[in-house]
Design brief:
Largest sheet: 3 strands, antiparallel
Order of helices and strands: EEEEEH
Structural class: mainly beta
Number of strands: 5
Oligomer: single chain
Low-confidence stretches: none
Number of helices: 1
Bound molecules: zinc ion
Strand order of the largest sheet: 1-2-3
Shape: elongated
Distance between the termini: 43 Å
Helix content: under 10%
Length: 89
């Protein structure tokens, strides 16, 4: 029954993005990371919000490096073959 939803509410509780344990909102902190520069976007265009256990220093540390969004640039379907590639085929 596990899903990848990181914002999943479980009976009024929320899952920590770092350790996966479910906690009450009051026990969780949020850490927002600006990933825009990784995608060559203007600052503030792309951000992620990580939930972490407020009282767990390990989770707090993880929240600052955790990537919820893959680092590969998001390419719209159809854009993949936009670049002519003489080596193809
Ligand atoms: Zn945690």
């Amino acid at each position: 029954m596990e899903t990848a939803g990181w914002w999943k509410k479980v009976g009024g509780r929320v899952r920590c993005s770092c350790c996966g344990r479910t906690r009450f909102w009051t026990d969780l902190g949020t850490f927002t990371t600006d990933l825009s520069s990784d995608f060559d976007l203007a600052d503030g265009t792309l951000t992620q919000t990580v939930l972490y256990c407020r009282h767990d220093s390990e989770c707090r540390g993880t929240s600052q490096t955790l990537r919820l969004i893959p680092s590969a640039p998001v390419v719209a379907p159809g854009d993949l073959c936009r670049e002519p590639n003489s080596d193809a085929d």
